[in-house]
Amino acid sequence: MNKVELLITNGIVMTMDPDLAVIQNGAVAVTGDQITAVDEVTSFSGWAVDKTIDAGGGIIMPGLINTHTHAAMTCFRGLADDLPLAEWLNNYIFPAEAKLNRDMVFKGTMLACAEMIMSGTTTFCDMYLFEGAVAEAAKQAEIRAVVGEVLYDFPSPHYGPLEKGFEYTENLIKKWQNDPIITIAVEPHSTYLCAPELLKKAADISEKYNVPLVIHVSETEFEVSQIKERFGLTPVSHLAELGVLSPRLLACHCVVLNDADISLLKQSDTRVSHNPESNMKLASGISPVPDLIDAGICVGVGTDGCASNNALDLFLEMDTAAKLHKVNRLDPTVMDAMTVLKMSTIDGARSLGLDKITGSIEPGKKADIIVIDTHKPHLTPMYHPESHLVYAVRGSDVDTSIINGKVVMENRALKTIDIETVIADIRDIAKNVVKS
C-alpha cells in the first residue's frame, strides 16, 4: 500500500510543469518536504494518508514567487505617497531608514511574511538593511526567501563602511549556505549608488559562492541619464562592460531600456524582475516586458516594498501586469493570462535560480503549494482557471499555504505567525516613526 504524509485533493491542479499540464480533478501527494505524486484523484484510491486537505473543487497550484521586495518597509507603508522617486527616497525613505534597527527590521519582516503567506506567496526575494534579521524572520515564519544586504558607496546605517558590508554579506552566505529555505544573495543597490569597483566585487562574490546577484537597474529616465553622463553608457551596457551581467544576476525594474540593452540581457542570460505597480505609483514608466519575453529573457514579477506599492499581494500584481501592457500596446492579446501566471511561478523561480526546487508542481520538487477557494461569487463561473488566477482571484481567496512540505496556513489561519502580536508590534513602531 502506498503511504503519504499529506494529500491535497479534490481540486484543479495547475502544475506549471514544462507542458503546463492541468489536471481537472486532481490531487498532490507530499511526503516530508517533497512532492511525491501528482495525478487524478482516482489514482490515490486506497492510499494510506496521514493528513488530507480537501480543496473543495478549488485550484491547487504552485505558491507565487515575489522576485523583488523590501519586506521590512511594511514599517513605512503609506508614510510618503504621491511623490517622485528621487524625492520619495532622499527626503523620506532614506531619513526613515537611518533610524532603523535590527528589531524594527525583524518585526517589519514578520508582518510582510504574514501578508505574503496569506496572499499566496511562498517565496520572496528581499533587499534591505539588517538582512540577517530578515533571514531569521523568514525562517521563523517558514517561508522560502532569498535575502541580501543592500550595498552602496556611502556608509550604511547598519554595517557602516562598505568593506564591512562585504564582510557581513560573506558571513551571511556562510551561515545560511546549507539551509533548506533561506538563500543569501549579493545585493548592490544600483549603478547610480554603486561605484564600478563595488559592482565588480559584488559580482566576484556572487560567482565565488554561486549565489544570486540582485540589483536595481534602469528604473527611471533620470537614472539612465546619470549613468550616461558619468560613463557614456546605459546602466545595462555599463554592467556589461564591467562583466556583471550573468545568469546569476536579477535586474530589478528594467523600465528604461533600448534594443541594445535587451540584446545584452539576452546574450548574458540575465533575468529581470518586473514591478508594475511600484513603477506606476512612482511614475517611473512601463518596462518593455513583452519585448523582453519575445527576446527569450526570463522575467519574474515583484511587488517592490510596501512604501511604494503599498501591498504585497502578487495576485493584484499579476492583474496589473497583464492589463498595463495591453493598454500600453493597445493590444488585448499581449501578456495573456498563462504568460503572466508563468512569470509569477516557474519563471519567477527561474529568475532566482530556484527552478529545480520550486515554481511548479512536479514529483521531486519541494512542496510549495497553495489552495485557492473558488466557491465565491466573483469566481463563479470558471471557464479558464488561468484567467481567473490573473484577472479575478485576490490574495484573500487563498485558503491554504504549504511551504517546504509544512502547512503554514490552513483555512486562512496562520500556523507559524502570531498575527495579533505582529500587528501590535508594527503599530508601536509606526508611532515612533511619526514622532521622529
SSE arrangement:
Layout: E1 3-14, E2 22-31, E3 34-40, E4 48-54, E5 59-62, E6 64-69, H1 85-97, H2 102-118, E7 121-128, H3 131-141, E8 144-151, H4 162-176, E9 182-184, E10 187-188, H5 196-209, E11 213-217, H6 221-231, H7 235-241, E12 249-253, H8 259-268, E13 271-274, H9 276-281, H10 289-294, E14 299-301, H11 314-329, H12 337-343, H13 346-351, E15 369-372, H14 385-391, E16 398-403, E17 406-410, E18 413-414, H15 419-435
Parallel strand pairs: 1-4, 1-5, 6-7, 7-8, 8-9, 8-10, 11-12, 12-13, 13-14
Antiparallel strand pairs: 1-2, 2-3, 5-15, 15-16, 16-17, 17-18
Proportion of beta-strand residues = 15-25%
Calculate Rg over CA atoms: 21 Å
| Overall number of domains | 2
Which regions contain 5 or more consecutive residues with pLDDT less than 50?
A: none
Sheet with the most strands? 9 strands, mixed
The CATH first-level class of the largest domain comes to Alpha Beta
Name given to the CATH homologous superfamily of the largest domain: Metal-dependent hydrolases
What can you see in these coordinates?
The protein contains 15 helices and 18 strands. It is an alpha/beta fold and 436 residues long. The strands form 3 sheets. Strands 1, 2, 3, 4, 5, 15, 16, 17 and 18 form a 9-stranded mixed beta sheet that branches.
